Amino acid sequence: MSVGQVKLLKTYLDFLVEKNKIISENIANRESTNYREKSLNFSQYLEKEEKGTLKTTEPGHIKRPVDFDISNTFDLASGPERDVDNGEINIENQMAELAKNTLSFEFASKQIGSIYKKLQYVIKGGNF
Fold it and tell me: What residue spans define the domains of the chain?
């Protein structure tokens, strides 16, 4: 697995953490008046992450991510997530999204853990 794939997995894990916060906020505010449901889009998150990467002048330069503000990368949801009749957030959909997000996080963290275990094996002198 390449360094780029590890970085992508790390970015995906960061995204899932932020998405978990947003889903939790939606659930906590489901009965608040004038609260609009929020959602986080990975494509936009990734695009913003890549824009925050320093430009290199030589092929051998290492790209380093620059901190960026995540607060503007979420979208206000519109559509079936909101119950149009009474303006409440659909709690069943939010709980399903939370479960999906948790499974995605577990999968991605196991993948990155596997990569580091392989690296550790090689560093200690093992062969594949």
Answer: 3-123
Q: Minimal CA–CA distance to 48: which of 35, 60, 65?
A: 65
Close Cβ partners of 123 (under 8 Å, ≥ 6 residues apart): none
Query: Higher confidence at residue 68 or residue 114?
Result: 114
In contact, 106 and 10? CB cutoff 8 Å: no
Q: Which two tokens stand for residue 57?
A: 């002048």
pLDDT 10s digits, 85-109: 455 688 999 999 999 999 999 999 9
CA distance 20 to 28: 12
Please state whether beta strands 74-76 and 38-40 pair in parallel, antiparallel, or not at all (unpaired): antiparallel
Structure tokens at 74: 């979420």
